[in-house]
Records
---
Amino acid sequence: MPGTILVWVGVAVIIGVIYALIKQFETRLVLIVAGLVMCTVAGDPFLALTEFSKNMVLVTLVQTILAVMGFACVMKVTKCDAHLINLLVGLLSSVRFILVPAAMIVTAFINVSLPSAAGCAAAVGAILIPLMISLGVRPAMAAASVMGGTFGSMLSPGLSHNAYIAEKLMSTDVIHVIAVHYWADIVCILVGAVVLGSVAVFLKENKGYVPDADHTVLKLERPNIIYAMVPLVPVFLLISSAYLGAPDAPEWAKSTLSNMPWLNKLPVPIAMFIGAILGVAVTRSNPSQCVKEFFDGMGNAYASILGIIIAAGVFVAGMNAVGLVDAFIEILKNAGSAARWAAAFGPFLLAVITGSGDAAALAFNAAVSPHAEKFGMTVPHLASLATLAGTLGRTMSPLAGAAIVCAGIAGVNPLEIAKRQAPGMIICLFVAILMLQ
């Protein structure tokens, strides 16, 4: 079948997927069938099956998500989460009207230290999402507030895109690249938080929700502060590891790492294991029951969260098979005088469709951004616009790993998160265009 026809078949399948998801068909079924159809039309049905098999063992993502959800279950059985939530509910009950935007800003701040969107969403979401639900925020909005902060990584020296622009396009250090777009990043975070908070008020999802059995947290008259601190330990360890191991870290930080080498580049799963062990020890809970709950949590996470990620991988494989992604990237490369608009809308749309902001942004930056002066822009501004646009698009994609993680913690469909994120991310896209032109 000619390539052009294959591309249009891919477009038709995507329209069908959007329709099926809106109608709330089983997400995993829709994505797997769509990917299999596209791979079959392209003449390689086994590509879909191969991708399914490969995504079952995405080592980093599997380890992170399973460990976080196992840790969350241990926190539940030890009641450490209840102590933390009851403690914070009392402190935050008077400022419920700013909970949604505040959660997004806090997540963005932490995402600077933990630049992995899925890792940050898992670590932060395990704490903030149950807390917000307990304070009356609807689960989908609670999940959206955490997901919305996962483009704070634009400010991180550890973000691969910042390093790519610095090394390949500018021959400078990462800090100089971040200096180009940091104001746009900060303004987008604030604008996104305000818009999401407004959406929450408009939909009446910022207060008044009565948690169901799945989200109910034990009410405690006197929360134990020590127990309440345990759920925060993994996040503290991860942020400390990122700060101490930063390239520009002070001498005392380097000395600290030399004395505690295990803290250097601490993986998310190990931080969660430490937190779980500490929770069992501090509360003197039954170790056998805690281990059982940990593994039960891992199993449920694989089915509900990783299942969608695996299915999304099959869908993306189908789009690649029919040449849809390549065709889209080729359009970006040949954007000509419209490059600044292509740098924004191209990566943004592809990220929404695929759940990844990497492919289009990297391709655009490799092929087009070096010639930015022809379009009346500088290289760092054009490259930064493409990167930020891709990140914003990923933040409102129902197929993004971070969205699926947040949806799993909240017990909602990822599409519900995407719908709430859409207004803010679209407005942020125009803000980025104005600030980085």
---
Amino acid sequence: MIEKLSARTAKAIKEAVPHHPTSEAVLKYALEGIYNAVFIIALTLLLSMITGNTKETFIILVTFALLRQTSGGKHLQSGVLCVVVTTSLFTGMSFVKPDVQMTQMLNLISIILVAMYAPSNIEHQSRIPKKYYPLLKLIAAVMIAANFIIISPTVSVSFFVQALTLIKTSRREVKSID
């Protein structure tokens, strides 16, 4: 759905401005990212109004996105899958209310995950040179560390879930021994 909408929009833009140097494929790719974000934000906020967790959901939307920009993370295979999973995840996260001790534990685990894996999966998603990757890791860790002072349960859950997306798993074929 998102891919088709992006393709139609890119084609319409290219027909309206045929001499613009940006290709239709590049426009489509950029529009997929924009539509993805718009659908996630709109649907998540709509659900938050229904559930009564708008404040928590807004905090999750902002903090998850900020940490993701500096730390990277896994991407899902399609735009629609991303919208469905992310909207469901953010809505579910808005109900999680850890106590102070668990909040601090989630902060600690998040910092460890960032130290081990960040930045993750940004090589083909960003134009940031590799020489700045240690700085991205530091910025991500500092963001999380700030929550040791703020002690926001919602922020700790958001950072923890985003930090989990950094973990790299390999898809090795498991061979049985006969």
---
Amino acid sequence: MKQIILFDGACNFCDKSVQFIITRDPDAFFSFASLQSDIGKQLAKNYSVPEKTNSLILLDGKQYYVKATAVFRICEKLSWPWKAFTCFRILPLFISNFLYDTLAKNRYRLFGKRESCMIPAPHIRNRFLE
């Protein structure tokens, strides 16, 4: 079953993260939607994701995952050596989420912000939900 990643389409770091995942997901396991898009908003609502969630969101079946848990679950499906990052699950979740939150809180300042969401290249457009 494919999983959906909801991301901040205005965030340069988030955009680069999506591109990173696409190139390391040879089986096209993940689909993507911007949190700012109509479909992204509807999916977040369908999964009862709290509106103020400041995180990448992984939709899997009937569940959603955020922060470090989402990252680790995404890494499980990526090509080697990136799936090895799941070994960091040994850290207590509050530490992993603290690191995630620190980056998330500073992502615009560190990496910049776009005025609009990216337009996917033709060869990956089918991986983005509209």
